[in-house]
Amino acid sequence: MKLCMIGTGYVGLVSGVCFADIGNQVVCVDKDKNKIEKLNSGISPIYEPGLDELIQKNFTAKRLSFTSNIDRAINSSDIIFICVGTPTKKGSIKVDLSFVYKCTKEILKYSKRKKIIITKSTVPVGTGDEIEKILKKKKKLFTVISNPEFLREGEAIRDFRYPDRIVIGSNEKKTFNIMRKLYAPLTNKGSKFFTTSRRGAELIKYASNAFLATKITFINELANLCEKSGVNIEDISLGMGSDSRIGGRFLRAGPAYGGSCFPKDTKGLVSIADKFKINLSIVKSVIKSNYNRKILLTKRVSKIMNNKIRNKKITVLGVTFKANTDDMRESSSLVLISYLLKKGAIVKYHDPSGPKKEFKMNKNLTFERTLSNACIGADLIIINTEWDEFKSIDFKKLVKKNNFKVYDMRNLYNPTELRKRNIKYYSVGRQ
129 CB contacts (<8 Å, ≥6 apart)? Predict the structure, then answer.
């Protein structure tokens, strides 16, 4: 099939490349000419394991192309995916749909024949209806479908190839067969093909992310109780997760959730509910608790350091919101490092995805390209992100002094083993 992906951000680029890899003809379009030039040179604008190789493979096979010419991209395709950003409006919890509607107006302007328009972007209930209103002048040319994505950063290619389910929302049942054909290479391997109304699909994405955010927040709050009651949070997670009704995923205690989805989508869901005068009290509590989590774990540094942070050498390992991504959006490290600098610490950080523009202008803050340079001489090492290379560190060998502390926010290490080596070790939800 001939597909057009409007937007080469995380969703559009990964989906477009993977659709090309299963045999479709895909053109990815973006107004950012810089980004398109890089993609045409084989340089990916995002960090995602395995993506660079797939871009080069499908670009060489001429199944994948990149352009800033939206007219050409639209008219060379039968199916158009809207993959633009839907951020939270500044100073609000409402979803900013301006990019979606602007994109829709361009589709209306340039389309000369029948198209299926699919929203891949996460959009509130009723957005498809609004898109149809914009397209009403040529409504016979368009069918509007919702097909939300469920790609996890760091595991997106696998998630595309082996999804738990493919959700298609349409008010025209005849389009389900077209979508079944598009996704046949995935459903033939066992992925569930789930159909519903367009509004149903729009809400499923928000509901899924809000529920997962709730699980993370729940286990983080229980970790606080475990610390006070002398219980190991990992025992609680395993005991709960063994119940098939609950499941073990998203039950690992640690920092507050972050990234491009959970913070934005929980707020978006509350905003949608407010519009319909429904009080989503649980989701509101999740948002508040997650914010408090960032403050709580950050302030623990003062306690660990006996309120003596000024001029202390502190190393932060991992600053992205999770491993295997370069995404800094809503990362706990933004709050953590800001706090340390305000307290007068001398901070180094190391992240396998490279230095971050968010930290460029900070004094007393240095990015180290190697783990050894980051750790040497540290008074405190904070593990913020669970990158694989942080899971088996010989701390004494790297720090090269005896009197230092480790604050493991991801519970990557066994407390007993580190304390046997006379390392002052602190974790989350454990004694």
Answer: 198, 199
Burial of 298 (0-12, 13-18, 19+ CB in 10 A): buried
137-139-144 Cα angle (round to 5): 130
- DSSP-derived 3-state class of residue 406: strand
CB distance 128 to 210 below 8 Å: no
Measured CA to CA in angstroms, residue 259 lies from 22, 102, 151, 220, 417 at distances of 28, 25, 12, 17, 32
Q: 101 pLDDT exceeds 90?
A: yes
Mean pLDDT of the chain: 96
Whole-number Å distance between alpha carbons of 350 and 371: 6
Which of 335, 219, 206 has the alpha carbon at shortest distance from 283? Answer: 206
**pLDDT over 90 at 431, yes or no:** no
Residue-wise pLDDT tens digits, 152-189:
999 999 999 999 999 999 999 999 999 999 999 999 99
First-to-last C-alpha distance (Å) of the chain: 56
The CA distance from 238 to 236, in Å, is 6
| pLDDT digit string, tens, across residues 358-378 | 998 888 999 999 999 999 999
Catalytic residues: 261
Q: Which two tokens stand for residue 321?
A: 């919101």
User: What is the value of pTM for the model shown?
Assistant: 0.94
Pairing of strands 405-408, 2-6: unpaired
Phi, psi values for residue 254, rounded to 5°: 175, -150
Q: Specify the pLDDT at position 139.
A: 85
Q: Which helix (H) or strand (E) holds 3?
A: strand 2-6
Cα-Cα-Cα-Cα torsion 226, 231, 233, 239, nearest 10 degrees, comes to -130
Counting Cα atoms < 13 Å in the Cβ hemisphere of 31 gives 6
How many other C-beta atoms can be found within 10 angstroms of the C-beta atom of residue 89? 13
What pLDDT digit, counting tens, does each position of 133-154 carry?
A: 999 999 899 999 999 999 999 9
What's CA 152's distance to the chain center, in Å? Answer: 6
